[in-house]
């Protein structure tokens, strides 16, 4: 009897945490989204799918702000993901040879990632300041990096690439080192050019790593919050306010937890679909 | 000679990553008027304790020393909690046969794809119900439900040779003894990796603490930095001094435990 209980005892402490802060919020999020839920009001009436319907009803209270935030998130994701998939691959290829100082450079490129978004946000808000900032000074220009579009987008994407490309590069690098050398040697013997070796040896060898990088990068970009909260503060207007930003502001600062939960569920479902699609595309190609 | 283009590219990239960080440190040592000069000047002349001095002065509305201690405490406890709960769970999933194992594993892996930001609203309500709002407990505990640690350690345990555990069982050791005396000592690098990554995640977390902490003396470092930006706006030596204080422990830990950080990140990609 004791022996049979052992695996469950090993699991118990984690499952307790996972149950309360991992599974319960998923269920509770669904529950909240079906109610008009104000933390400060005693009555929290059931409203069915109204909160969801409002997201798609042009004259509803939240419609305009919601779609503006969806647009912001979409613009950011579409602009940042290709860069965060391609540039780190280039960096990894650069680092994937033996030369003195390799580990040092890898560490330097990774370093910004160990700093939090709060540090990065404060630092870049200063660097991109139109008058006192280093960026405009170095390039001798007067670009309004924080207050005008498209510059605000360039800033948010650029800062995010600067901050996280070392992370993806390290993942690629590990993937590159797993590709057997013999494959490159055989390709060279067959007269393959550098481009052909990249196309027919490197890329296929990186497939699982690419799947991981693309999926995690899309998830991270679609959940962007801190950069726009601290660097552009949503400006100009609310043009760069992301879904996560709008959602938490509505739910926690303006006490409208029901509508915010409906947005959370919508975002989570959408991203689950995107992840599933990624897996399908990559698996299909493998066959 | 033929390496010159390679090193030129490497050094150019290095400048891109390092110059902003150097600028942060230099600015934190400037006086207010020097930092306000346009065009900006590189060197803090004179080198000044203006920024740090204002941060640490008595009776400040932005008690940065409290934030620092809060963050240290929270990140340390969080890392300990993650390892203490994830390690036995991961071991059970890697080595033991029991009813429901598959179901638990599927749930844990599935949870990796639920973005934490989408759980903030319900988690706020849960933490509120527990009476944890505006406490460090709320910074330490909920994040430890993350499935990453279990997933990561399970992969590592699966890669260990079974023979040592089997030998211990033949010697009459029970599962707890095998786990504590054989498996854990063999897993020091993986455990160290998880400790370091969990510490950094918690040290840097921003979205959660800014909404669940309210009192100025209970904030963590990142939440405090948000407040600092609002309070000092363009008083950049003060703001940058705060950013430096938040960066130093993270960068120091990275330098000391670089192997573990890079290892952990590398492995998450290959196995993912």
Automatic annotation (TrEMBL), chain A:
Residue intervals of the ABC transmembrane type-1 domain: 70-278
Alphabetical keyword list: Cell membrane, Membrane, Transmembrane, Transmembrane helix, Transport
Protein's UniProt name: Glycerol-3-phosphate ABC transporter permease
Example of a GO biological process term: transmembrane transport
Stored Pfam families: BPD_transp_1
Membrane-crossing residue ranges in chain numbering: 12-34, 74-95, 107-127, 151-174, 209-231, 260-282
One GO CC term on file: plasma membrane
Source taxon at top rank: Bacteria
Membrane topology: Multi-pass membrane protein
Family: Belongs to the binding-protein-dependent transport system permease family.
Location of the protein in the cell: Cell membrane
Species annotation: Virgisporangium aliadipatigenens
TrEMBL record, chain B:
One GO CC term on file: plasma membrane
Record-annotated ABC transmembrane type-1 domain positions: 68-257
Residue ranges of the TM segments: 7-26, 67-91, 103-126, 132-153, 191-216, 236-257
Presence of keyword Nucleotidyltransferase: no
Subcellular location: Cell membrane
Pfam family, one: BPD_transp_1
Alphabetical list of PANTHER family matching this protein: ABC TRANSPORTER PERMEASE PROTEIN MG189-RELATED, ABC TRANSPORTER PERMEASE PROTEIN MG189-RELATED-RELATED
UniProt protein name: Sugar ABC transporter permease
Phylogenetic placement of the source organism: Bacteria, Bacillati, Actinomycetota, Actinomycetes, Micromonosporales
